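Before relying on records like the one below, remember that each one covers exactly one chain. Contacts with other chains, cofactors or solvent are not represented anywhere in the record.
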Amino acid sequence: MSIDYLDGNALAGPLGELFAVDLTVAVGTCAGCGNSGPVAGLRVYGPAPGLVGRCAGCEEVMVRLVRTPDAVWLDLRGTLSLRIPMPDDQQGG
């Protein structure tokens, strides 16, 4: 039996409400297998009770995002690092 999932672009709207940059292009590293890739490449399950982004390599959970009426819960404990490219006009220096 196969469970259908969306790609990581399903996180664009919810993450866009929290961050000023597009996090779907950010490169995350999986804590489970060390695989690196864009957030858009995650396998996203949901929507209820929230969105769960799993590594495309090993299926470990990398991102959990749950919205309640008064808050958003973002859990990245399955992500070792998240490299977020910054537009030229937002880079320091």
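The mean pLDDT is 90.
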